[in-house]
Design a protein that fits this description.
Elements lengths: L1 H21 L3 E3 L24 E7 L2 E7 L5 H12 L6 E2 L2 E3 L3 E4 L29 E4 L12 E4 L12 E7 L1 H6 L12 E10 L6
Antiparallel strand pairs: 1-10, 2-3, 2-10, 3-9, 4-10, 5-6, 6-8, 7-8, 7-9
Length: 208
Amino acid sequence: MRLKTFLKQSLFVLPILLGNACALEFVEMKPLSSERILKFDAPKWVVNPAKQYRAVLQTSKGNITLELYPQIAPKTVNSFVFLALNHYYDGVPFHRVIENFMAQTGDPTGLGTGGPGYQFYVELDAKYTFDKAGVLGQARSNSLASNGSQFFITYVPYPSLNGAYTVFGQLLEGMNILKSIQKDPNAQNKADLIQKMTILEEVVPVIK
């Protein structure tokens, strides 16, 4: 009877323990610089691929929260986080917004031709594709080795991008904000901006 009671209690406690383990905690990462920096020779390594990361984009329309994939695209996520921690994305406009496709940003010039001063090769994983709305992708030019600072978030599934562009995250919150983003830089309607980007890093509990 004692053994049966123990087993019943164990089966009851296990889901609770698993539930607590799944409740992730995040802390805001400290900036690497106090001022905005726009050019670099290469990004420093600032992420731990074993941890989870999120990015909060404070835009002129509201907040957008992104989950990042450091295990799938470590170079891309590291570059993204490194630039964000140097205030690179603060004040950057959404320079390319296409209905039923995506919203693109990440170029401080606002022209779609700028970058951080370095480039790197795409990171592709067949399991992570543009199969749904809210996929975070790395923009590039014609070369597969031209990843830089520009990125986009899809409005809809877009399978023609599969195998050609890096998937490095997914929208968690703010699809309504994303859909309200506009690119119309005239006197009456200015392009929407990333006012500030904050990076959150998973807090790994210390087991004593």
